């Protein structure tokens, strides 16, 4: 399937959007992260279990990401695998942290949906 706006295969376009988003997220660049998301974006985190929290719209998602960045300044996501299919993307990752209570890691996935060259949904899930 081709992305009609750019004539680029949809999988390649989706992968490029997610790559830019993840690079900005790894830098904890909140402005770049939010510039890569739609106005009506959705983010679901993993806390509290089992369902996490849902944030909708630029303001709510920005606040959720800003709180995460502030509480985890040394956070690092290591990508294990990326799979794209049209406007969808699955990223399997390991999240590493260093904190007051020690070092640790957890494995998980993000399910992304891309619309008009931006992230419309980022749904996060963890093992355990």
Describe the structure.
- The chain has 128 residues and is of the alpha+beta class.
- The protein has one domain: Nuclear Transport Factor 2, Chain: A, CATH 3.10.450.
- Helix content is 29%, strand content 47%.
- It has 3 helices and 8 strands, in the order E-E-H-H-E-E-H-E-E-E-E.
- The protein has helices at residues 10-26, 30-35, 58-71, and strands spanning 2-3, 8-9, 37-44, 54-56, 76-85, 88-99, 102-115, 118-126.
- The strands form 2 sheets. Strands 4-3-8-7-6-5 form a 6-stranded mixed beta sheet. It has a two-stranded antiparallel ribbon with strand order 1-2.
- A hairpin with a 2-residue loop joins strand 6 and strand 7.
Give a quick account of the main beta sheet: strands, pairing sense, barrel closure. 6 strands, mixed
Strand adjacency order, main sheet: 4-3-8-7-6-5
Number of helices: 3
Order of SSEs: EEHHEEHEEEE
CATH architecture field: Roll
Helix content: 25-40%
In percent, how much strand structure appears in the residues? Answer: over 45%
Give the rounded overall mean pLDDT. 91
CATH class annotation: Alpha Beta
| CATH topology heading | Nuclear Transport Factor 2, Chain: A
User: What is the subunit arrangement here?
Assistant: single chain
Quickly count the domains. 1
- Shape descriptor reads globular
Radius of gyration, whole Å: 15 Å
Let me know the number of strands: 8
> How far is the N terminus from the C terminus?
36 Å
